[in-house]
Amino acid sequence: MTRVAIVIVTYNSGAQIGACLDSLRTIEDVEIVVVDNSSTDATRLEAESRGVRIIANAGNAGFAAAVNQGVLATTAPLLLLLNPDARIQCGLSSLAQEFDDPAVGAAGGMLTGSDGRPQTGFMVRNLPTATALTFELLGLNSLWPRNPANWHYRCLGLDPVTPGFVEQPSGAFLMFSRVIWERVGGFDERYWPLWFEDVDFCWKVKQAGKLVRYNPLAVAQHDGGHTAGALPLELRERYWYGSLLEYAAGHYRSLVFRLICAATIFGAALRAVRGLPQLGFKAVAVYGAVCRLAFRRMVRPR
Question: CA-CA distance, 256 to 276, in Å (whole number)?
Fold first, then answer.
């Protein structure tokens, strides 16, 4: 029986998906499914030319919903979630071996950039505390990236060549068992269209009493940001802030959540002012919309 199914969610990923699928050609005995969220570029043609199975959505179902579709369309006991801008270099079998321990529910490997260096701060993180998110919203993590809250959140002290237990590997290269996916109810589709759904999933894995492992023998080269980078600023900010607030509403106490909403409003106002010289009134429009979103969530969290 095939042990691993690889699920790749695409959205206008025509420039990336070919290299991603080519990196899987030498991997034997895996299921591969591409779930496409209504791309308007050559994504489907690139995937079809390589003979992989494609689920073509008529509209953008969102990342979480597409992951769930891919899981339901496969039968293997282990699922690997792989970004279309990631290319597996080695070690998929080593990642799968982590699940020989029944206490393990999820595992991630090393992500490297085009320079070959580990993507420390991204490939593995701790689950975000309210302080870490507040610092992010206020821009403090950019001004003081090595502050204690950000250091802990982004695992900046991680030795990238040492395996161990972690809290949240990146969803760009994340393996999990079908059993745990079923137990926690899959990926939460309220995180639409993207961001924070993998964080929420890893939190649920931890709550279910399962462990999460990091295995540096499994390596994928990852470009990063192709979907987010293609979005207009107003959509990118709306989606990111919206998903962050969705996560905060579901994981923090009411008072803490409202403080995060207040930090969102204050931080967005600062970004609007800072963006005026370059973006003009657009900065006010974009971050004004973020302020209104945060105020609505403050009044009605869920």
Answer: 30
Residues 63 and 164 in one domain: yes
Question: How far apart are alpha carbons 279 and 226 in whole angstroms?
Answer: 22
Residue whose pair of structure tokens reads 């649920």 in the numeric block: 204
Q: Cis omega (within 30 of 0) on the bond before 193?
A: yes
Q: How far apart are the C-alpha atoms of 100 and 227, rounded to whole Å? A: 34
Q: Given its phi and psi angles, is residue 225 left (phi above 0), alpha (psi -120 to 50 degrees) or beta?
A: left
Task: Report which of 297, 161, 156, 140 is spatially closest to residue 218, judged by C-alpha positions.
Answer: 161
Please check whether residues 146 and 119 belong to one and the same domain: no
Q: How many residues does the chain have?
A: 302
Q: Are residues 113 and 17 in the same domain?
A: yes
Q: What predicted TM-score, i.e. pTM, was given to this entire model?
A: 0.96
Kindly state whether residues 144 and 166 are assigned to the same domain: no
Question: What angle, 0 to 180 degrees and rounded to 10, lies between the N-to-C axes of helices 130-138 and 233-251?
Answer: 160
pLDDT tens-digit map of 195-205: 999 999 999 99
The per-residue pLDDT for range 57-111, each reduced to its tens digit, is: 999 999 999 999 999 999 999 999 999 999 999 999 999 999 999 999 999 999 9
Task: Give dist(CA 48, CA 43) in Å, integer.
Answer: 9
